[in-house]
Amino acid sequence: MKTSNSLATLVMLVIAAMLTMYLGYYAWDTFQNPFSTTLAYQFTVNDSAPADGYIVRDELVLPGHSGILELSREEGEKVGANQVVARVYRNAKAQQDQAEIQRLQLEIELLQSAAAGGGEYLSAAKLDEEIITSMAQLRSCAASGGFTHLDRQVMQVKSTVLKREYTFGDNLSASDLTDRAAQLSQQIFQLRNQSSGAVTQVPAPVSGVFSSRVDGYETLLTAENVLSLTPSALDQLDGQGTRAPDSVPGKLITSNTWYFAAALPVDTAKRLTEGRTATVRFSGEFNQDVPMVVERISQEENGRCAVVFSSDRYLSQTTLLRQQTAELIFRSQSGLRVPKAALRMWTFSTEDGPEERMGVYVITGGRAEFKPVEILMAGSDFYVVRTVNAGKIAFRAGDQVIVNAVGLYPNMPL
To answer: How many CB atoms lie within 10 A of CB 314?
Structure first.
């Protein structure tokens, strides 16, 4: 029993010693560092509300074709009526023949350029530099995952290499180059005969902006019905989209105006006015603040309203968007962010008597300098403020603000 009591006493003494050491260190640290500081930095606070909705456009789905589909237009590219948007090959052999024809056509152009004297290139060194640049661009494109332009970059590398070979290599005469071009033209003629009828071109029936994404909402959401949508109608659209068959080359967006339709709480909808502009912030790949016109605010339905926004900007950048979570920006306040504990009141004397001024203390030249500020917005543990003064005594981003301290006064030595 005595042994047990002795052990408990020893443990309590050890704990007491550790606690004493901790409190002693804290007191010493407070004495050595009588205040704490932080840096003021630029900060923006938004008065905003979330908005879940759908992107709506006039869209024409292109008909499907059996065979190997190869797109000839990029996402968001403008296409004129009757221009080719895709090619359909009967089999892999026809596709290979078409690729070979394109390669031979490029080579013929380069041969003709070299036969005419090499064009604007005055030295092989200049062509070598262009080859290196093209290869660097190709590597960057592949590394970043930008495969939309990859084919073009590959062709650029091939083109510059061939230019170098035909313009400065093998000491070929202009007659040799012309003969070579004639031989390649004959190969193209033979390949076209072989693949005759094996390649079908898909033209654009009307002008518009091309998109390869067909999601099934093209007929459910149109510019004609978007202004009559209700909150319940928007809810019913969830999950109604269907993926198009691989045989469908894509669609054409035929309208210049696109819409964003969302069901919003009544309190949020009341902050908007039909006919006026609102800022809609999109995220993800299309990270953009878009000024959009409030086209319509529907009647209230179970505490919500369907709100339709419209824009005629960024159409080519929004072709892949459909269901979106955006943010409505009603008001933004930009200023300097400081902890709430850093804000202090200073009483000073004037001819009319004592006055109080709100501000922060910053360290300037080893002294505590008081800089008056005005509160713009309050957060949970911070304020967004702006300076009251200008010139050298203005409060700026990067100032070292005193947060915790006792007995501060203007120009106090630190």
So the answer is: 15
DSSP summary character for residue 250: -
Among 270, 274, 261, 268, residue whose Cα is nearest residue 235: 261
For the entire predicted model, the pTM comes to 0.67
Report how far residue 290's alpha carbon sits from residue 299's, in angstroms, rounded to the nearest whole number. 25
Distance CA 140, CA 146 (A): 9
User: Per-residue pLDDT tens for 293-304?
Assistant: 999 999 999 999
- Contact residues for 247 (Cβ-Cβ < 8 A; gap 6+): 64, 65, 66, 67, 69
Closest CA to 290 of 334, 327, 331, 333: 327
Up-side HSE of residue 217: CA atoms within 13 Å toward CB?
25
pLDDT in tens, 311-322: 999 999 999 999
The phi, psi pair for 378, rounded to 5°, reads -115, 135
Low-confidence ranges of the chain (pLDDT < 70): 1-7, 11, 22-34, 113-125, 127, 142-174, 177, 350
State the chain's maximal CA–CA distance in angstroms. 115
**Other Cβ atoms within 10 Å of 62 Cβ, number:** 20
